[in-house]
């Protein structure tokens, strides 16, 4: 059986919304019953009362119709609606390739100026954003670790809070975490440079920990643990790393991880009080027992 994304009811014959891709019971099958994001794109307010005598009204109607074709449920932007987590993952991968190209053609100084948030050039405001999507060019462990969490848990948080809110959460937490790490370095008189989505990833885990603390995940693909253990295990390592660099080695932005986690926990608590409800399982595609059944194998 599948689970309704709104009320959690078990359904032998679930309804799959063709606009948002969610799974619902009979009571919540209609778009207006599950607050479907596609509702806001139905109809064309621009030009409804166009009588044809006013050129400005005609022009507004044409613009509105063009915008409707692009942003409607069948338009090009519909591919990104509900898939912001995957979009960000794609940007991370493209950025990783761009890093290699810049290093090979323009050199290390250009790489730092474009992709790295550094206390030495804090006024390079574009790096506040690019550093969130950049990862260490010297190996795959950094990008793989963040990428796998974003792939499995990002869409779940996006479904809980909506695509726009998820995008804002990811960017704000990632930028704030990077700036906090650089700020700590400046306060300690230690020049700092950071890159990576780890702060935003910790925010995602923080939201899930509040909304669904008992969500089962598989550590190393076969050890089942609740997600709160995974989250606070990371937090403990980061706290220890902040106070004992020799124990965990340098090159890890532990303070940025903690800032991202705090932002995620705070927003998760806010969302919980606003009535955001978490489902009891991670759903990806088909599987045994009904459509979309499965668990994240992190």
From TrEMBL:
Q: Where is the AN1-type domain?
A: 1-44
Q: Give a GO biological-process term.
A: proteolysis
Cross-referenced Pfam families: Rhomboid, zf-AN1
Its Enzyme Commission number?
Answer: 3.4.21.105
User: Has the keyword Metal-binding been applied to this entry?
Assistant: yes
TM ranges are 84-103, 110-127, 139-157, 166-187, 193-211, 218-241, 247-267
Return the Gene3D superfamilies for the record: AN1-like Zinc finger, Rhomboid-like
The main place the protein resides is: membrane
Q: Which UniProt keywords apply?
A: Hydrolase, Membrane, Metal-binding, Protease, Transmembrane, Transmembrane helix, Zinc, Zinc-finger
Q: Which molecular-function annotations from GO does this UniProt entry contain?
A: peptidase activity; zinc ion binding
This protein's membrane topology, according to the annotation, is: Multi-pass membrane protein
| GO CC term (a single one) | membrane
Q: Where in the cell is it found?
A: Membrane
Q: Which PROSITE patterns has this protein been placed in?
A: ZF_AN1
Family, as annotated = Belongs to the peptidase S54 family.
* Identification of the protein by name: Rhomboid family intramembrane serine protease
